[in-house]
């Protein structure tokens, strides 16, 4: 088992161009900036309600926090490694602990009748709409 080499390290050793290590050094920090902000989230206006879906594969219900605060819907994920995985002896591991928060402002979101469901790695949040209140008062000039 000690002679096993992860494929990416083996492939790097076979490269002939001497500046690959320099290229990899400069590409690595930028690669993390090119990824999404943790998870993908879609917001759909479905007439009487908003339907917000978030792709959260491998995340359980207790690792997700959904809250609506003054029209801002926030979905937070805090994925931690379980005690079962801490005791294993991995030769190569690509899963990790991570946390992310995504939010969207829904100006006419109602606080009553909210529902959320996690199924197949997809979180679906239904946010009913309320009649929009006018926050602007027109003042006549004399």
Automatic annotation (TrEMBL):
Gene3D superfamilies, alphabetized: 2.60.40.790
SHSP domain sequence ranges: 32-142
InterPro entries reported in the protein's UniProt record: A-crystallin/Hsp20_dom, HSP20-like_chaperone, Small_HSP
SUPFAM superfamilies hit by this protein: HSP20-like chaperones
Family: Belongs to the small heat shock protein (HSP20) family.
Name by which UniProt lists this protein: Hsp20 family protein
Organism: Paratractidigestivibacter faecalis
Lineage per the UniProt record: Bacteria, Bacillati, Actinomycetota, Coriobacteriia, Coriobacteriales
């Amino acid at each position: 088992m000690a002679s096993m080499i992860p494929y990416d390290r083996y492939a790097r050793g076979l490269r002939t161009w001497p500046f690959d290590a320099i290229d990899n050094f400069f590409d690595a920090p930028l690669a993390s900036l090119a990824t999404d902000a943790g998870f993908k989230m879609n917001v759909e206006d479905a007439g009487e309600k908003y339907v917000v879906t978030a792709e959260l594969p491998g995340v359980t219900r207790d690792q997700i926090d959904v809250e609506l605060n003054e029209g801002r819907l926030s979905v937070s994920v805090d994925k931690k490694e379980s005690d079962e995985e801490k005791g294993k002896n991995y030769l190569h591991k690509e899963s990790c602990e991570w946390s992310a928060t995504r939010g969207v402002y829904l100006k006419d979101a109602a606080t009553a009748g909210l529902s959320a469901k996690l199924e197949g790695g997809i979180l679906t949040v239904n946010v009913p709409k309320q009649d929009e209140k006018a926050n602007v008062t027109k003042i006549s000039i004399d």
